[in-house]
Amino acid sequence: MKALVDILREQVEKYRALLEYSKKKQKILIANDIKTLEEILKEERKLIMQLTSLEHDRMLIVEKLSQAMEIDLADLKLTEIAEKAPEPFAEELRFIYAELNDLIGELDRLNRENSELVEQALKIVNFNLDILTDAPREVVYGEREENGAKNKNLSRIFDGKA
Hints:
Elements: H1 2-31, H2 34-69, H3 78-84, H4 89-134
Helix pairs in contact: 1-2, 1-4, 3-4
């Protein structure tokens, strides 16, 4: 049980760090600072890999606990495991569950807001591209016909399909 509590505490710390990255990401998205966003995303990826590894370790611990307690804990929620755990672990598991639940809820909210910010930025970029590609233009260096008039089949600066 101690190993389970320890790994869950570590997961809580990683989720807290992930939450901080999401908050920073939101400020960066608003400021439109692409370079800093790339750096944050790299750090966030590392953190997610660590969380994936911790989750794998947690599942192994739960499997060992299941064998030791002769109860199938693999399909149980953390609150249900806490009910079957001896004290002082039961109380700590309930506390960790509440903390993880709050952190994941906040992360979900921030990720939805950040998604909306990215969508808005993409709409602005697409709008600007549409303006640039839809306006009929003549290229300054267009070929001239023999009589000196500009060729009417001039190409655009941007292809709208790009």
